[in-house]
Design a protein that fits this description.
The complex is a heterodimer of chains A (487) and B (136). Chain A is an alpha+beta fold and 487 residues long. Chain A has helices at residues 38-44, 49-56, 115-118, 122-132, 147-156, 158-163, 169-172, 191-198, 222-228, 244-261, 263-266, 282-317, 399-403, 417-423, 426-437, 446-451, 460-470, and strands spanning 4-7, 10-16, 19-22, 32-35, 66-76, 78-87, 92-93, 105-114, 210-219, 234-241, 277-278, 328-333, 335-344, 347-356, 359-360, 379-382, 390-395, 406-407, 440-443, 473-486. In chain B, strand 4 (76-88) and strand 5 form a beta hairpin. The chains are: A alpha+beta (487), B alpha+beta (136). Chains A and B meet through strand 5, helix 8, helix 10, helix 14 and helix 16 of A and helix 2 and strand 6 of B.
Chain lengths: 487, 136
């Protein structure tokens, strides 16, 4: 087994199995680490991912090491699948290290239906979901908001949905931060961002966002699966989307404001997209509070889609959603920055933990994990492609020491969208999935299906295997698509 | 003026050339429309756009951001973009227009945002070249 991996102008040194390190050089303040098998590393080193993870180590106040997850790939400025923990008093916060789609994330809804209950009705179900869950561009949202409603959503998150009849108390108990960021401030969100969000509350959007009915195919940890309420052949629903135009605009606005106000810091960074506000500065505080509001928007967005999904299931199966056991398993963010306390060099330190395309994966016992899951560890939901499985993990015991309590967020893209459209035809992909794997897909556009064809993604099984082997996210269960809708 | 969609692992890159700075920015805006929709009917009203910024890169960023904003609030896809750029008093000013194709007439995919990543605007001997990465 080689001790180094040569990736052109970057040489990685093996720390131990699946842990690779780029030592500090030039303006790097700490090493950069890549968590990958050699097979995944071959893919990760094929674009600008390694350059981008190395660039993130230039951010002032970064501690220990920047980390690229097993599903890492090139993003803009900061790689997708990147984690950077930065001192919250002397460091900085970077909107680009969170990403434009603030609180893009995933939620999984359990049911007590089994695959046999759905088999033969897939077409009816996918049509009903597609007709009722807004997706694509200009498709509106589950609710139309006025000014005061939007302010409430930004301020109170899922608590607003509870009061308005779109949620039950139990939903809040199964959501990261119980569905509310207390440090949100709607006043720090621009009018432009609010204008974009008003028509989109409760909508999937497009790109890689989707709603998928899945069946549980494998259970790996019986006791944890039991605690999560998962068993083989069970039907679950996975919802993947974010904060829509509102969140995108918050990131854009603060990137520009920081560029103008902190040019001195920006000039010391290797990529303009890493623009960061020094900790304690007005813009750092304002961005953190605006991001909190966008996080709340995203949680309500996914909540409304879940509410609509419950209604669709009620109509299709003729039973109440409670009777079908359609309870939220968990909702996790994978584009977010949060103040968290972690042990660094033997001392507790408050950090801005940036996770862009990475999922919080706290183990059992952590007070941040909702009480419903604290005894077994936080559920981590890893969506795969339309033709591959998705996974439910639980936060691993090693995650706090290795990754600031983080793991991967998906399969990770392998192929560009332009290449995907040259190699695949949406209709063929749709037919192959239905005839070959009994997966029913419906989308606003064939191009979206081509861009999201199973072959454009890394092997999710390998991503999850590495996470499991490293002890940062333990395999609990695997699911496989039954119906998929996308924008 | 012309544009080309370029490979990018997760997002989309657009390269453009034109005889003027305004032209190359309008070509990138046309590329942004093409990244969202393969074909559209020649219907829709034209609307004006004016953007001011401190340098050409920031101007391009703000221009494409403004078109994304208009798309979401007007529910139209901005196509057939035209733009002129001038500098006045240390400020860069883009004045342009676009035709807004109603989103309910097309199947469009969403570009989330414009990024500074790998952004390039260069004047060569006889034309302008530019490149931008858009978040999908």
């Amino acid at each position: 087994m080689a001790d180094t991996y040569d990736a052109g102008d970057v040489t990685l040194h093996r720390v131990r199995e699946y842990v690779w390190e780029i030592p500090p050089e030039g303006g790097m303040r700490v090493p950069a680490r890549v968590l990958a098998s050699e097979r995944l590393l071959d893919e990760i080193s094929d674009d600008l991912t390694l350059t981008q993870i190395r660039n993130t180590t230039h951010l002032p106040g970064i501690v220990k090491h920047a980390i690229c997850m097993p599903d890492g790939h090139q993003g803009y400025g900061f790689p997708v699948g990147g984690v950077a923990a930065i001192d919250a008093e002397t460091g900085c916060i970077s909107p680009g290290a969170v990403g434009y789609d603030i609180n893009c994330g995933v939620r999984m809804v359990r049911t007590n239906l089994e695959y046999d209950d759905v088999r033969g009705r897939e077409e009816e179900l996918v049509d009903a979901l597609f007709a009722n869950v807004p997706s694509g561009l200009g498709g509106g949202g589950v609710v139309q908001t006025d000014k005061s409603t939007l302010e409430e959503v930004l301020d109170r998150g899922v608590d607003w949905a509870l009061e308005s009849g779109y949620a039950v108390e139990d939903d809040l108990n199964h959501c990261e931060d119980e569905g509310v960021r207390p440090e949100s401030d709607p006043d720090e969100v621009s009018q432009k961002a609010k204008d974009r969000g008003r028509q989109q509350l409760g909508s999937l959007g497009s790109g890689n966002h989707f709603l998928e009915v899945q069946r549980v195919t494998d259970v790996f940890l019986d006791d944890v699966a039991d605690a999560y309420g998962l068993s083989e052949d069970q039907i679950v629903v996975l919802i993947h989307c974010g904060s829509r135009g509102l969140g995108h605009q918050v990131c854009t606005d603060y990137l520009r404001d920081i560029e103008r106000e902190h040019e001195d810091l920006l000039n010391r960074l290797p990529d303009k997209e890493l623009a960061a506000a020094p900790a304690g500065s007005r813009l750092a505080e304002d961005y953190y509070h605006a991001m909190g509001a966008a996080i709340n928007f995203a949680w309500v967005n996914r909540q409304l889609i879940m509410h609509r999904t419950r209604e669709v299931f009620e109509r299709v199966f003729g039973r109440d959603w409670e009777d079908m056991g359609m309870h939220l398993l968990y909702d996790v963010a994978h584009n977010i920055a949060k103040k968290e306390v972690h042990e660094v060099d033997g001392n507790d330190q408050e950090l801005y933990v940036h996770r862009k395309g990475a999922t919080r994966a706290f183990p059992a016992g952590r007070p941040e994990v909702p009480a419903a899951h604290r005894d077994v560890g936080q559920p981590v939901i890893i969506p795969g492609s339309m033709g591959a499985g998705s996974y439910v993990l639980r936060g691993g015991e090693r995650s706090m020491a290795e990754t600031f309590g983080s793991t991967a967020h998906g399969a990770g893209r392998l192929m560009s969208r332009t290449q995907a459209k040259n190699e695949y035809w949406g209709g063929d992909v749709q037919d192959d999935l239905r005839e070959g794997q009994q997966v029913y897909v419906k989308a606003q556009s064939g191009a979206t299906i081509a861009e999201e064809a199973p072959g454009v993604y890394k092997d999710v099984d390998e991503v999850v295997r590495v996470s499991d082997e490293l002890g940062i996210g333990d395999k609990v269960a695997r699911t496989f698509p039954v119906c998929n809708i996308k924008g | 003026m012309s544009y080309e969609l370029r490979d990018h692992t997760a997002d989309v890159g657009i390269a453009a050339t034109a005889g003027s700075l305004g032209g190359v920015m309008a070509a990138l805006a046309d590329g942004m429309a093409a990244a969202q929709c393969d074909e559209w009917p020649a219907v829709g009203d034209r609307f004006d756009v004016e953007v001011r910024a401190e340098n050409p890169e920031a101007l391009l960023f703000d221009y494409l951001d403004e078109l994304i904003y208009r798309r979401d609030v007007l529910n139209v896809l901005p196509v057939d973009n035209e733009a002129t750029v001038r500098e006045a008093g240390g400020e860069w000013i883009l004045e342009g227009s676009a035709m807004g194709v109603p989103l309910d007439r097309i199947h469009a995919r969403e570009i989330k945002a414009v990024t500074y990543s790998e952004m390039r605007i260069e004047e060569t001997d006889d034309e302008w070249e530019a490149y931008v990465v858009l978040d999908v």
